[in-house]
């Protein structure tokens, strides 16, 4: 009789509170991509916007190096220029040239085309023009650096900036890894809670079926049945709430990964397996500050600032440049009677800075002050990292002890719950004892999962602090 009733109740109730949830999970697993913690981190490393931005910065740094190299290469320019004078510019003649002016005035009256006389004559014999109305110039010019101290320092700085961006990439990857891990663990915690909750619902449904059978036979009161039904209703409500909570933490994980929010996603992994991996050296060893990307960033920033000082100092050095040009000039009053004249030249230009009003010296002094600030930032960062590692070690040790305690409490609560059930079935225990033992079991289960979650989170924080 008891077995019959149990089977009937299970078939009626479980599909509503348990089997449908399991079936939904199965469907989700079939339709969505499955991610472990490591694969979720790998996905985020390729799809998170901060990582994409870091890759763009890397490409930009490469372009900067090439741009700096380009400033040291010769530059070649082709020019064309056409100019037509609407009024020819004229120059006054010296007094000694006056007789020549009179002569050209006479000639201008004689020759059929006075324009062949050039610019002499015209309105005044005291003026002369050395231009034609149409002037056309085309040519090629070249400018090349022979020596410039800032070029070589700039090239070093461009390569140093590339190194700095590399460290920024490491820092971005570290940040994304932390975000994904912190978003991934709550999903596993909810899943573990759901798994335990489903087992508790199944056990409680079975117990309720037995109590209902005993009630029909007159061995227990209606109050006993009501207590079990209330407990089952509470667990069912908790499960529904937990399912909704899972959707929230899952969306947070998708956001941290850079995963499409509307696409299905399934996580897999065991919390217990993630709680191991800490060695004794992690808890007592020396701190290697240079493993932290923030320290590496400051180190590289200090190197860049030293190059900045070097660049300012290089401006006291002379610069030497070579130049040259080849031009072809045309002059004429029309396109037929003008003349062409080639022109070519090469040269070297040296610039020697003498005095700049103390601007360069003051710039060097400011850059040196900036280096001092970076050194102080390094010292403060190392102190901060030391405190972070110390706190992480203490938190891990506390979490480990708490997990061990909660594990023992859970095992003890399970034994008490099983004993009260046996006593109740044999008629020597009350439903109140069963309810109390049941509540204690649920509390210890939640406490154990929370302690396990805290241990994993403290382990993650310790790994990040040590940059393992």
Task: Give a description of the structure.
The chain has 468 residues and is an alpha+beta fold. The chain has helices spanning 2-31, 37-47, 49-71, 98-110, 149-216, 222-257, 271-274, 280-284, 293-314, 359-425, 431-466; strands spanning 33-35, 75-84, 91-92, 127-128, 134-147, 265-267, 319-332, 339-351. The chain folds into 3 domains: 1-72 and 148-269, Up-down Bundle (Outer membrane efflux proteins (OEP)), CATH 1.20.1600; 90-130, no CATH class; 276-315 and 357-468, Outer membrane efflux proteins (OEP). A 4-stranded antiparallel β-sheet has the order 2-5-7-8, with no helix packed on it. A two-stranded parallel sheet has the order 1-6. Strands 3-4 form a two-stranded antiparallel sheet. Helix 3 (49-71) runs antiparallel to helix 5, helix 5 (149-216) packs antiparallel against helix 9 (293-314) and helix 10 packs antiparallel against helix 11. Mean pLDDT is 85; it is low at 1-30 and 119-123.
SSE layout and pairings?
Layout (H helix, E strand, L loop, with lengths): L1 H30 L1 E3 L1 H11 L1 H23 L3 E10 L6 E2 L5 H13 L16 E2 L5 E14 L1 H68 L5 H36 L7 E3 L3 H4 L5 H5 L8 H22 L4 E14 L6 E13 L7 H67 L5 H36 L2
Helix pairs in contact: 1-5, 2-5, 3-5, 5-6, 5-9, 5-11, 9-10, 10-11
Can you give me a brief rundown of this structure?
The chain has 468 residues and is α+β, with helices and mostly antiparallel strands.
Structural class: alpha+beta
Distance between the termini: 61 Å
CATH topology of the largest domain: Outer membrane efflux proteins (OEP)
Kindly report the average pLDDT value. Answer: 85
| Oligomerization status of the protein chains | single chain
- Total count of helical runs of at least 4 residues: 11
Largest sheet data: 4 strands, antiparallel
CATH architectural arrangement of the largest domain: Up-down Bundle
- Topology order in helix (H) and strand (E) letters: HEHHEEHEEHHEHHHEEHH
Shape: elongated
Strand content: 5-15%
Which ranges are low-confidence, i.e. pLDDT below 50, for 5 or more consecutive residues?
A: 1-30, 119-123
Helix content: 55-70%
- Under CATH, the homologous superfamily of the largest domain reads Outer membrane efflux proteins (OEP)
The strands making up the biggest β-sheet line up spatially as: 2-5-7-8
Give the count of structural domains.
Answer: 3
